[in-house]
Design a protein that fits this description.
The protein is mainly β. It has one helix and ten strands; from the N terminus they run αββββββββββ. Keywords: Signal.
């Protein structure tokens, strides 16, 4: 009886360990957002990379702090995101909207991952290394 319990414990621990430490993506794979958006990402070295299927941690929204509150802005409203204050923890971002050219400033997590597909392959960069993101119309 004890050997059966021990065997089940080993199997259970093995299954739990197999599920740890994986993102569910293989090499070169990116999270696919629910809607396809295209953008040109300009990094702090002024290198521009055009991507499709852009996402922030797999989401097609930008979340940032505004004062004591939080804004969640869908990509379909955003024209440009410009960053200032290069800091590894927090980045000040100015979001310019497509409609009426209005803008709003928010603070975003500098460690946030940005993903996309470029013509060269999968693209990944953290917010702290981005200077600007220009969203383009997807046909």
């Amino acid at each position: 009886m004890k050997s059966k319990i021990g065997l089940w414990m080993v199997i259970a621990l093995g299954l739990m360990a197999a599920g740890m430490g994986t993102t569910g993506r293989g090499p070169g794979e990116i999270p696919i957002p629910s809607k396809d958006f295209s953008a040109t990402i300009v990094d702090r070295q002024n290198i521009a990379t055009h991507v499709t299927q852009i996402s922030f941690n797999g989401q097609a929204t930008l979340q940032g702090a505004r004062g004591e509150g939080s804004l969640i802005i869908p990509f379909d409203r955003i024209k440009t995101i410009s960053f200032s204050e290069a800091n590894t923890q927090k980045r000040r971002a100015r979001i310019t909207f497509k409609d009426a050219g209005e803008s709003v400033d928010v603070v975003v997590d500098g460690q946030l991952k940005v993903y996309g597909k470029s013509r060269f392959g999968a693209f990944e960069i953290t917010m702290k290394n981005i200077q600007r993101i220009d969203f383009t119309e997807t046909p």
